[in-house]
Structure formats: C-alpha cells, structure tokens
Amino acid sequence: MPHIIAVDGPAAAGKGTLARRLAAALDLPYLDTGLLYRAVGRLVLDEGADPADAAIAESCARRLQPSDLDRADLRGPAADHAASNVAAVPGVRAALLDFQRDFGRRHGAVLDGRDIGTVVFPNAPVKLFITATPRARAERRWRELLAKDPSATLEAVESEMAARDARDAARSTAPMLPAADAVLLDTTGLDAEAAFQRALSIVRERLGLAATPA
Ligand code: DC
C-alpha cells in the first residue's frame, strides 16, 4: 500500500495547513475530508431540510459529486454546524468511506479529518493527532472570521466550537479520538512553521525517510 498519513484532531488545531504542507513536502495527494461532510451539509441545507435528519443526510451523501467540493459556501458558522450534524449520521459516514479509501489507495495520501487513523485507514503507518487548547483554537478561528464578520465575538466562537467538538467526540459512530498509535502534537504555542517542522520530522522518522537538506 502506498504511504498514508492520517492527520486527525479537533477544529482549528491547525491540521489543515499542516496536512497540506506535509502532502507538498512528501509529494503525496491531499484530501481534506471535512470538506466532504461540509458539502453534504450544504446539500441538505439546499433542500431546506434539517442536517440532523438522517434519511435526507444519507441520501445527499450518496449523490455527492466531486464538483460539490468546489462550492464557495463550505466555510463559516452555518456550514460548520451542518457538517457536524450530518457527520453524526452513520449512513453518511458509510457513504463517504469508499471515496476516502479509494482516494488514499490510488497513490497514497495525506488525509485530514477526525477518524482517519481510527476508521478510514486504521493501518496507516503514520498517524498524527493535532491538538491545541480550546482558547487557542477559538482565537485562530475568530481571527479568520473577523475578516468576514466584524461583529463576531471570541466568546461566541469558543462556545460554538466547544459544542461542535462535543458533538464530534460524543457521536456513537467514528467519534473523534486519537488512535492508540497516534502521535499527539499540541500546536498551542507553535506557529504554523514550527508545527509543520515538528510534524515532518515525526513523519520522516516513522516512514524511515532521511531528511532532505532545505
Ligand atoms: O475539519 P472540518 O472542520 O472541516 O470538519 C467539518 C465537520 O465534519 C466537523 O464537525 C467534523 C466532521 N468530520 C468528521 O466527522 N470526520 C472527518 N473525517 C472529517 C470531518
């Protein structure tokens, strides 16, 4: 099997940026699996339905098209909320599993999400679980949000994020949790470059790759 790097962790821990940079450094394809759940959530909202409605959410997941991942409205509080609700539906997770596995098996990949190391690729040779304190994560997300919505408050972002993390961690199917063999990386005091360097050295060590001179 080609190299699979699993990058899991809660919202705004820095895993997206990190996973994208790892993929570029290792010359592997990259998949942001959160986008799949976001796109399904959007399809449910398009129908005027409730993202927690299991039957509608599953039917949207089954007819997801690659072009749905290119939509411009997959970020922001409404998409966050819809994604986290459809992600708790077992039928949605089952419908998205093959897509993720096929993507990884073709040429190897770096995948970021919540259950990559536990469910999607439990045999991945490298698993990272990226964390940061709730306050540090909320501050990062709040700064991003301010550009679009100057009235956003840190307290509101932090409480919405806590609710989303709780939903992601408490669901019965594929809850967010570190795989037993995952390496934990806390990015609280680290900038993106330092987090990336730390992750890259863990990956190289696990894969037995020599560091290439910068
Ligand atoms: O990583 P993100 O914030 O874009 O993820 C959006 C939502 O999708 C999040 O609430 C958790 C869910 N998700 C999941 O359950 N499993 C994944 N592999 C990726 C995301």
Summarize the model shown.
This protein has nine helices and five strands. It has helices spanning 15-26, 34-46, 54-62, 77-86, 90-107, 116-120, 134-148, 154-170, 192-207; strands spanning 4-8, 30-32, 109-113, 126-131, 183-186. Helix 2 packs across helix 4 (77-86) and helix 3 runs parallel beside helix 5 (90-107).
Description:
It is a single chain. This protein has helices at residues 15-26, 34-46, 54-62, 77-86, 90-107, 116-120, 134-148, 154-170, 192-207, and strands at 4-8, 30-32, 109-113, 126-131, 183-186. It is an alpha/beta fold. The longest helix has 18 residues, at 90-107. It is globular. The chain starts with a strand and ends in a 7-residue tail after the last helix. The mean pLDDT is 94. It binds 2'-deoxycytidine-5'-monophosphate (DC). The site of 2'-deoxycytidine-5'-monophosphate (DC) has 14 residues, from helix 2, helix 4 and helix 8.
Tags for this model:
214 residues; alpha/beta; five-stranded parallel beta sheet; 54% helix; binds 2'-deoxycytidine-5'-monophosphate
Largest sheet: 5 strands, parallel
Strand/helix succession: EHEHHHHEHEHHEH
Task: Identify the bound ligands.
Answer: 2'-deoxycytidine-5'-monophosphate
Mean pLDDT: 94
Termini separation: 28 Å
Counting DSSP E segments of at least 2 residues, the number of strands comes to 5
Radius of gyration (Å): 17 Å
Poorly predicted runs of 5 or more residues: none
**Strand order, sheet with most strands:** 2-3-1-4-5
Name the overall outline. globular
| Helix/strand structural class | alpha/beta
Please indicate the percent range of residues in DSSP E strands (runs of 2 or more). 5-15%
* Percent range of helical residues: 40-55%
Number of helices: 9
